[in-house]
DNA sequence: GTCTATATTCCGATAGAC
DNA sequence: GTCTATCGGAATATAGAC
């Protein structure tokens, strides 16, 4: 642990550039240039480009998922765990552009191994919570589908937000995390209350 | 118009490779090799890589959106226009892997100009329909947010489907278009009926 | 309209000095 | 741990013959 850890700096820069440009468009020279070292130095810290990007992904995902897990481990005393989860997840996706873009990129480009890693490091925990919010009297398959719908509506909402300036009636304010959180919470509460008292 | 139009073949191959690999990972040599011509030939039909990919996108989007527009222009006599729309849109995203991946890639990588093109060629029409399905007594902003939620839940559901094999309780059958259509239709019907009789 | 051949730049990766 | 120097190959793009 040094005051300025070169390896960590490389991981941070790699994650940001990969999130913005994608795997093939970010070169080892680019990363090195932003960090302020030579590209040869990158090969001292990492075996190659594949390993660098893979570790950068794990670096960001483990970093950003910890607070979410902490939230989910708190007991639900107010019955507003759904709102708290939506608020936190929307805020994470809207306000952390790097995290959001890494997530979407993995969903579209990830192979089987990387998708399983993504689930285990980021999505499995919130997924279990959301399944727990669905009607326990429904069969397992229905509850899984409902959980996917809930996570999907949040992801889709954030993803479509970039189109709002070009959609008829769309205002950029509709992409604010507070607006999205309020709206999605209301929709989900209506859906969940229609099936069971799940709080 | 020739029996085998080289230009059209180039556009089809470009769209497929770009959908699978992304902009930087698909080379002019790759496209030419699959089509069965030389890369120099591509520069006779298109000014460069940028123009090729841009025209390939427009080629696919205008092609695949026509049936959707046709559906939306039919009068809603049975009151099941929502179900018909969900069915068609889910089927399009699930069964046409090229279209789906192009759409997601544009959402994550597109700049202002390309996003506006995407809206005008693909999303504006279904968006107007979905706005029409929401409660007319709600203010415009609320109806827009609801429409984004409806499109978003479909997009998010299809997008998260790749994770189902790795999620607890997830079954690959949950990614079938018929299963997604039935589930999403039921959820949306519940949400929309909670606000107004919109049929 | 399609080809061969090539110019130029950039890429990932390595060797070896310090 | 960081550097200079460089290799071999692949990228976009062009010139010009057929």
From TrEMBL, chains A, B:
It holds the Pfam family TetR_N. Coiled coil: none annotated. Residues 4-64 form the HTH tetR-type domain. Residues 27-46 bind DNA. The keyword Transcription applies. Transmembrane segments: none annotated. Gene3D superfamilies: Tetracycline Repressor, domain 2. Keywords: DNA-binding, Repressor, Transcription, Transcription regulation. The keyword Glycoprotein does not apply. InterPro entries: DNA-bd_HTH_TetR-type_CS, Homeodomain-like_sf, HTH-type_TetR-like_transc_reg, HTH_TetR. This is TetR/AcrR family transcriptional regulator. The lineage of its organism: Bacteria, Pseudomonadati, Thermodesulfobacteriota, Desulfovibrionia, Desulfovibrionales.
